[in-house]
Amino acid sequence: MQDTTTKTVKDSKARKNPIKMSGEKVTVHYGAKQALFDVDLLIEENQVTSLIGPSGCGKSTFLRCLNRMNDTIDICRVGGTLKLGDNDIYDPNVDVVELRARVGMVFQKPNPFPKSIFENVAYGPRIHGLCRTKTDMEEVVVSSLQKAGLFEEIKDRLDEPGTGLSGGQQQRLCIARAIAVSPEVILMDEPCSALDPIATAKVEELIDELRENYTIVIVTHSMQQAARVSQRTAFFHLGNLVEEGPTDQIFTNPVDQRTQDYITGRFG
User: Fold this and answer.
1) In the sheet that 232-237 helps form, which strands lie side by side, from edge to edge?
2) pLDDT tens per residue, range 71-95
3) pLDDT for 268
């Protein structure tokens, strides 16, 4: 299993797109409990990579390694190598705030700030000093809301609280907030699990559009969603990366029996 995965990871020449992020021999411990075992994974630029697998398999843990969100957990230790481009993101000299601007995150439950819609989007550019004038800031906010497919719905309500939006609108506001600091990668941890089918469809459509400008990694429990939105899929089981490949291949002709069993509902 691991030989196959490692070979795939290291053979980046076979990939269609440049490699945006990579993990090699990634391990994660929470205290004495090991949550990830020697995970090797390449993430291609301008592609959506889905991480799938049963609950507790390590997919969200791996996702959180990609922008060092696990740093916020005292008992968590991360080993191996994780890179953004050619840069080791766990290098002691890395500015974690800057890293999280380059690798943004959208969480499972929409979490707008208790501020106006405008200020939700303006927050990141303001703290990172990205806009010199009020006009620059307005352009960034409008552009981000447009990219998130939300501007037309809320353009007359920019001074109203972000918390007053519907669940689906709140999630797109959070995506706009992530986009506003011009990230290179957007991580999404089950971004549709709290949404109804109509809102889910809008977010999925948005993910497909965002892929033109961003690299996206999404954790999802929904295999149908993975099949709809991603170009590559990685299957995790019990802390191991079992296999990774083009999404259609993973779903129609997986190499590993465990992948087949999970996809066909025999376990999970």
Assistant:
1) 103-106, 185-189, 215-219, 48-52, 232-237, 240-246
2) 999 999 999 999 999 999 999 999 9
3) 56
Strand partners, 81: 24
Neighbouring C-alpha atoms within 13 Å toward the C-beta of 26: 32
Place of tokens 């890395």: 94
**What element of type H or E holds 141?**
helix 134-147
Do the Cβ atoms of 199 and 168 come closer than 8 Å?
A: yes
* Beta carbons within 10 angstroms of residue 227's beta carbon: 18
For tokens 């469809």, name the residue. 201
Amino acid at 7: K
Task: Find the angle CA(242)-CA(222)-CA(245) to the nearest 5 degrees.
Answer: 35
d(CA 113, CA 143): 19
- The pLDDT assigned to 14 comes to 62
CB atoms within 10 A of CB 253: 11
Q: Answer yes or no: are the C-beta atoms of 64 and 70 closer than 8 Å.
A: yes
Considering only CA atoms, which of 190, 191, 188 is closest in space to residue 170? 191
pLDDT-flagged residues of the chain (< 70): 1-14, 267-268
Phi, psi of 56 (to 5 degrees): 80, 15
CA distance 41 to 55: 20
Sign for the CA dihedral angle at 196, 64, 99, 89 comes to negative
* Per-residue model confidence (pLDDT) at position 16: 79
Backbone angles phi, psi at 157, to 5 degrees: -130, 25
> Model's pTM, two decimal places?
0.92
CA gap 113, 186 in Å, rounded: 19
Q: Report the alpha-carbon distance of residue 89 to residue 245 in Å, rounded.
A: 24
Can you give the pLDDT at residue 234?
A: 98
